[in-house]
Amino acid sequence: MRATDSREFEHIRETLFELLDKKRIKLLRQTLEEMNEFDVAEFLSEIEPAKMAMIFRMLSKEKGAEVFANLDVGEQEFIINSVSDTELGDIIEELYVDDAVDMMEELPANVVKRVMRAATPDTRSIINQYLNYPENSAGGIMTAEFIDLKKYMNVKESIARIRRIGEDKETIYTCFVTSSDRRLEGVVTVKELLLANDDDVIEDIMDRNLIYVSTTDDRETVTEKFSDYDLLALPVADSEGRLVGIVTVDDVIDVLEQEATEDIEKMAAITPSDKPYLKLGVFEIWKNRIPWLMLLMVSATFTGIIITSFEDALAVQAVLMAFIPMLMDTGGNSGSQASVTVIRSISLGDIEFSDIMEVIWKEIRVAVLSGVALACATFAKILLVDKLIMGNPEVSFLVSLVVCITMALTVFCAKFVGCTLPMLAKKAGFDPAVMSSPFITTIVDAISLLIYFSVAKILLHI
Amino acid sequence: MRATDSREFEHIRETLFELLDKKRIKLLRQTLEEMNEFDVAEFLSEIEPAKMAMIFRMLSKEKGAEVFANLDVGEQEFIINSVSDTELGDIIEELYVDDAVDMMEELPANVVKRVMRAATPDTRSIINQYLNYPENSAGGIMTAEFIDLKKYMNVKESIARIRRIGEDKETIYTCFVTSSDRRLEGVVTVKELLLANDDDVIEDIMDRNLIYVSTTDDRETVTEKFSDYDLLALPVADSEGRLVGIVTVDDVIDVLEQEATEDIEKMAAITPSDKPYLKLGVFEIWKNRIPWLMLLMVSATFTGIIITSFEDALAVQAVLMAFIPMLMDTGGNSGSQASVTVIRSISLGDIEFSDIMEVIWKEIRVAVLSGVALACATFAKILLVDKLIMGNPEVSFLVSLVVCITMALTVFCAKFVGCTLPMLAKKAGFDPAVMSSPFITTIVDAISLLIYFSVAKILLHI
To answer: If pLDDT is split at 50, 70 and 90, which confidence band does B164 have?
Structure first.
């Protein structure tokens, strides 16, 4: 059952559906039990809800919980509503706390109530505690199942402990050495344990370079730690410095993808959503997009006003019109390049507000290079295309000059605005990603028009 | 030495610099040996090259190699040039193959030659073999150091083997069960080994649901597997299905960040580069951006031509000018929203070309909703702002109608173009990310103008 080979997986799916149609439930159940939980979830989400719940209930407790964690909220909700409280209780107990919490954050209130009733008091209190951490904080993504050791234990005892309590821990490979008051004193990996001698004492082999985050730290801080230090698990401490949970690398991978998607969506003026595109309803998509379009549409009024105010000038030199889109687009693109680069660098932790001067100085030099290059190219293009090929008589030398000067100045301003706004947004506590292409474009549009008409006024005396 | 707490790290840095100035080399060396390799690299890259090389050479073999892997190519090159062949040989031998290969891909040819001479024949042949895999393929990011077991071994023997050969493996937590002809037969985790009984046989506890990729698979396939199946390591098989290497989760995290950054940069019409922004020279940044700006600038010619051809019409109804930026921007933004969403979904593996009809149908409905909403908003805005507040007499009811109809039609076309082009690009074998905001905008600009003037011709008889 190679999950990777999609053709083979196709084949398995067919067999499963065949078994389902032929009601060969026992065999179907066996096959599912042997399959990877992710593939089982894929299969379940393809069959009609009623049957899905029926088949889900056939699965073993453990398998059931694993599969459940891989289903979409909608499917999870359906299953919750179709199982008995005892069955529900079993699922919740088997789930890792962080999976349970993720689910709770999505489910409608009434369903959550029922789930909480079904959970044991301990689980309930843990989940409650977790639900109080903001979804984007380290506390929001951490899990409570980790292995803690004491520094006076020796390797043999430690391995024995891991074997005893390891079963339902999300990771056993990083063990956390805690003091009697649950403070983190050191970290030791199973690799180190295996490579050490049985009677070595933890205190001597544990790593004291503690890398940890606090429950309130942002998700991005967590991902940075993982990519900087190549971790498998990161300890999370509360305000009193006590170890309350860990974040495991598999959750970090999901966070990384979500963070990037959110940035990308914000950069395109879309309100982020964590559902995959095909699962989003038309109205949801619309709701995530329309407010930004409206806002940008209205703010484009200024460019309109500018043009209106120069209408007479344009009437005299109608040819100037033809170059407006090119100037606005090039300005917008130059600005986006700068802003997007800066935004991404900020969220990767490559640059901070303190670097603003260095960034501006870099962008200014890039802007001069680009501005000059584009101005020359424009000049050549105008003479070649508009004058020779199109043979437009109105395109005088002066007009081309106006366009080229505007081009250079616009690119310069665009790069400057593009690199400063995101950093200022960050400083002001907003998400820099919002200060990207669409907004930069709208601002640069207005700037470019003002430059254009001013230069025209001076050189063409209109 | 809590690497996380930046203030404390500041403090350590100061101490280190103090030790350096006071030439208290012995103590400095001790401190560095105890520190995390990433932080040591950070420290080294802050001091002048000559001193850096000097201090680097003080580090122990193992530490040296770890730190070396965390330096930038420039720094690595400087060190390579300042160490003896024997020292260089040691570094290369200590490096994990994938780190060594990453370095080779960046270094100038002459330096690579020297490194290869310094490496032992075995290492050299492995590196050579790896260098032949494309940088973005599974083969390009895999490492050769993994633990292989035989299915007839029992748990005790297996753990003994791990303890024996585990030292210099990049991960020991996932062990790969191979046949005599190096084919992958199963996978067993150290967790499973620890939780099993000493005399259990691997064959009985190993997982036969093989999840693997082949050396030529794209990096994105690798990252998908990791996020789907929550893996710590993924086996890589050659064309004959033999196990040649593994990809570890820490490398996948770097790949995920690179992939996202590349997508984002392409979406903003920038040629991607894997150096962090502040390390990029002004000319490099310029080289990555200017070709796209040129291309887009030239392609904006069409919009110019369209406007010129309608110059007379515009002369009659100069007021139409004022709305062009708003129409073009809104069109561009609507298009980008669709394209960016689709591009991201493609690279996350959420949608494939086969979904094109579903995607188009979704976007069409979103487009209708957005178009109508924006048209109404525009109408209100024109009557309120342009007519009442600005008191522009030229803004007649008919003119507003023209603008609103154009708005609706433009948004519709924009969404359609925005969602189809990336999928077609993907189908044609291009990177869909290129079919994003800037290009969509340029295309939509032309479309919106054509619609605008045609509608105007019909309703205003110009």
So the answer is: confident
**B347 contact A CB<8A:** no
* CA distance, residue A210 to nearest chain B CA (Å): 5
- Return the pLDDT at B202: 93
Region of residue B230 (phi > 0: left; psi between -120 and 50: alpha; otherwise: beta) = left
| Residues contacting residue B223 through CB under 8 Å, at least 6 positions apart | A253, B252, B255, B256, B259
**3-state DSSP call for residue B83?**
coil
Distance CA B92, CA B115 (A): 8
Contacting residues of B for A190, CB less than 8 Å apart: 172-173, 190, 194
Instruction: Name residues whose C-beta falls within 8 Å of residue B24's C-beta, 6 or more positions apart in sequence.
Output: none
A324 touches chain B (CB under 8 A): yes
Q: What pLDDT sits at residue B87?
A: 81
Three-state SS at B336: helix
d(CA A118, CA A213): 32
Alpha-carbon distance values, B274 to A130, A262, B219, B258, B301 (Å)? 37, 21, 15, 7, 33
Starting at the edge strand that comes first in sequence, how are the strands of the sheet with A184-189 ordered? Answer: A147-149, A174-178, A184-189
Taking residue B27's Cβ as centre, other Cβ atoms within 10 Å add up to 12
Specify whether the backbone of A213 is left (phi greater than 0), alpha (psi in -120 to 50) or beta: beta
Report the DSSP pairing between strands B174-178 and B147-149.
parallel
Residues across chain B: 462
Residue indicated by tokens 């209130």: A109
Contact A278 B336 (CB under 8 A): no
Strands (E), B223-381: 233-237, 243-248
Q: Six-digit token pair at A221?
A: 């801080």
Residue A275 near residue A261 (C-beta atoms within 8 A): no
Selection from B146, B188, B150, B151 nearest residue B166 by Cα? B146
Q: Give B276 to chain A, closest Cα distance, Å.
A: 6
Tell me the shortest Cα–Cα distance from B412 to chain A, in angstroms. Answer: 13
Cβ of B348 within 8 Å of Cβ of A228? The answer is: no
Residue A72 has pLDDT above 90, yes or no: no
- Residue A178 in 3-state DSSP? strand
Structure tokens at A103: 């689910």
C-alpha–C-alpha distance, residues B190 and B161, integer Å: 12
DSSP characters for A300-312? THHHHHHHHHTHH
Residue A194 to residue A197: CA distance in whole angstroms: 8
Q: Strand (E) positions, B21-75?
A: none
d(CA B352, CA B103): 34
Query: What ipTM does this complex have?
Result: 0.73
d(CA A2, CA B237): 13
Chain A hits for B172, CB-CB cut-off 8 Å, are 190-191, 194
Burial (CB count <10 Å: 0-12, 13-18, 19+), residue A48: exposed
pTM of the model: 0.73
Question: What digits encode the pLDDT tens for the residues A166-208?
Answer: 877 778 899 999 988 888 999 999 999 988 988 999 999 998 8
CB contact under 8 A, A322 and B308: yes
- Return the closest-CA partner of residue A325 out of A284, A378, A283, A280: A378
* Residue B417 identity (one-letter amino acid): V
Q: Which residues of A touch B370 (CB under 8 A)?
A: 286, 289-290, 293
Is the CB of residue A260 less than 8 Å from the CB of residue A343? no
Q: What is the mean pLDDT of residues B432-437?
A: 76
Question: What are the C-alpha distances in Å from B95 to residues A29, A184, B63, B98, B195?
Answer: 47, 31, 10, 8, 32
The residue assigned the tokens 């520190």 is B35
Amino acid symbol at A220: E
